[in-house]
Structures are given as structure tokens and as C-alpha cells.
Amino acid sequence: MDGAFPEGFFCSTNQETQVRIGGAWHRVKRPEMDCGLVVSSDTQVATLPMADVRLGDLIVVGHHGTRVLPQERDRDKLGVFGFMRSTVSSEKPKNMTIREIASEMRRTKDGDGKILVVAGPAVVHTGGREHLSRLIREGYVHVLFAGNALATHDIEQSLFGTSLGISMESGGGTAEGHEHHLHSINRVRRLGGIRNAVEQGMLGSGIMFECVTHNVPFVLADSIRDDGPLPDVITDALAAQAAMREMIHSQGITFCLMIATTLHSIAVGNLLPASVKTVCVDINPATVTKLADRGTFQSIGLVTDVEPFLRVLVEEVTKP
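^ that's the sequence the OP posted. Answer follows.
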């Protein structure tokens, strides 16, 4: 039937998986946790989300003829991405960890990898917007995942100099500042989207401006609490999942930086293959531990405020 697997279907992991067909092992395309496996030919097997299964699909049932190949970890590597270094602590030396993250991002940029950034609105609220904007300009962001809030408050700062009505210059409240984010959304809606706002000169700075200017693709996913939302926001949760899933694989993401967003980080973590090196940064230790608890074991966590993290990260990646 449409929308449901057969009983006893093989439940996928984010590790490399192989299925034996016709006496030969075949690699499963697009490793992802919590999916099924669909066989489309004698040599083609791929993960398939439950909602996407259709009547007549050939679905792997049981565990016979399947094998999972765990992601290797370098037991001799002592750095932040070495063996068993994914534990979370607010007392680890942060500058050393950020230097190693910066080095990995430089290697990714200079090689054939791609960097995905998953960011929450606290990036704007805490004053980190210019740091993330510079990372985009310097080529350290190849794809951006966010929600309505990050884009809205980023645009609000560009238009009004505030975030949630708070002045980003003085830190104090502003007259009628509580209306600024709604006026920002409305102006973009009147123009038909973020790209139009940039091309027509209304939006001239910030994270979303840099994404449009430097052709960095982004996926904005809706939340039930969103105002507006902006025209670019995908309001269907399954459609947003599909868009993120497609972007991860079509862009060849190999490194993911998650910044100050609990639900978005966990959601994206569920979509990533185990081979994608993942860093989660949040002021709340629970965010970092939840990500690992829900299966994104390859994630390393850093408990710190987002603005100092981004400031030091930019300094490190832009060093001559």
C-alpha cells in the first residue's frame, strides 16, 4: 500500500549498508537512519522514507542478506575528530577545539568536500550575524539550513537595526520594535521572496543577502509557531525534509556545522550519513547530548555562546 512498509521491514541506519542481490553485495545509496530500503533493479538499492513508499515498491524485509559496515574511527588520532572525542563538556579548552574545527573546514574547502551550516536565530540575537556573513563571503558555507526565524531576524536587522525589537547597536529596546519582524516579513512577501528583495535593492546586507549574492543555496523550513512566514519558507514538513535530503546528497555535503538550534540540529542529524563530520555548538548542553542520543554518533559537541564561537572561528579560518 502507499505510505506504509510491509511488516518486518529492514529499518536503516546512517552507516554504510549493503544488500545481497543475485549473489553480489550492493551498496545502499543515500545512507540515512530510520528509513526502509527499496530495490529498484538488480543492482540499485536506496533508503526510502516511510511516507514515500508506494504500492508495488520492492522493500527489503528482515535482516538476512543485509550487512552494515560501521564508520571507522581513527584510534590514533588525538584531535577533536579522533576516536571517542564526541563527549560534551562546558569545561573543555574551547580555543583549541575551535582551531581544530577551523582546520577541518579549511581542508574541506580546499578539497572536494562541501560544508553545510544549520543555524538558529540566536546567531542574529547574540550579534553573530556578521561572522556568519563573512564565512559565507569567504566560501566556508556551501549550503544553509535554517527556519523562518533566522531569515526574518537577519532581514529585520538589515532593515531596522534590531533583532526581536532590540537594538543591535545599543542593546536596548526601541520604540515599536516588537513590530519590526512583522514589517520585515511583509516587505519581503510584497516583493515575492528574498532573492527579489536583494535584486530590487531592498535587502543589502546580512546572511540571506550573502547567500543570494554568492549563490549559496538554502532551505528554510517552517515551524508551527512562525509568523508570516517568509515566501521562501517551506510550510509542508515532509516537503522540507525532502528538500533538505536532496540538498545534502546533490551538493555532496561532507561537513556539517550546527549552531544554536536544538530542533533543527536534531532533524538534520537524522538525515545525515554517518560519514559526514558534524559539529554541534550550543549554550545548552542538552542540545548537544540529544543530538548524539538520537543516533548522530559522529557529532562532536561544544558548549558555548554562539557569538564568541563564530568570532574565533572566523579569525582562525581567515588566518594567512
